[in-house]
Amino acid sequence: MRWIFRLVTHGIALVIGVALGIYILPILTAPKGPDAATLTAGAEGATYTGSFTRDLAGSDFLHWGTGSISLSPSRITHIGELAPGPDYKLYLAPEFVEDEAGFEAIKDASVRVGDVKMFGGLILDVPEGINIEAYTTVVIWCEAFGEFITAAKYR
To answer: For the DM13 domain, which residue ranges apply (predicted)?
Structure first.
């Protein structure tokens, strides 16, 4: 009987440890983000701007973003915060969505711009061949778990 109790308690401890590891590892391995002056300079001359908010249908206490997003034909700058997590990607989408189901429905029509590895602001170069005019919304998506993080309509 005692071995069953130990098996259950050790199993619970293992599950909690793995879950904490998945959540904490991206925080520990995240590169140092740009400083405030670099972010502000990156946002200057933006063609479009939008805002991330926590009140979207697909956002919760583990999946959220706040702050502003600025887009130019060559650069995307986020000044704000994202909930830390693994395997985040920034997409440009043809229409505004605010949850997993909405993004999965238009993911094939969206374009992946790059990886999001910093949670306190970021600057991404827009790859050649991507026209920001062809899209209306920035979406942050967790590719590994298929989780919606946040979105902002910029036009």
So the answer is: 50-155
